[in-house]
Amino acid sequence: MGEEQIFERMRSDHRRVLETVAGIETALLTGAARAVSPQDEARLREAFALMEEQFATHMAAEDDVLYPALLETLPEARVSIGPLAAEHLELRDMLARLTATFLEPVGPDRDEQIAVQLRDFIDLLRIHIRKEEAVVISVAERVLRPREVEALAARMPQPPRGESGGAPR
Hints:
- The protein is mostly helical and 169 residues long.
- The protein has one domain (3-155): nmb1532 protein domain like (Four Helix Bundle (Hemerythrin (Met), subunit A)), CATH 1.20.120.520.
- It is 77% helix and 0% strand.
- It is built from 5 helices and no strands.
- The chain has helices at residues 6-28, 38-73, 78-102, 108-143, 146-155.
């Protein structure tokens, strides 16, 4: 992945995650509470797998490379980066709790807990991505040195075949 593409790839990952959670939200969190169907279960498994992949790659690259590089270049960014890093921890914890709840025996209590946890997870994820794009990515594009951008690109997953990095799947 070329240096010039890394920030668009990050935005593409964000769009892909937001599209996934919007689909879950439409399927599971609109209208009256209802049981989680086998179709919903499959959709949730796919979504959880995507989130785990993104947390292990994209989010890890932000934690290990992007945030430290920005803090080295702009120490005053700590007031913005600190809360974003804390949100990464919270999102990881929320996903783990959600996954554990999903594995509990099927029933109305479990389904209600899934709905509540999903709502909280999706809300925080959306807010986090908006802040990250406004505060981190836009600044990083302007201030990071080529070696830092190269290090970030090396940590990001390669786009799947047929994906240029600009368009979400």
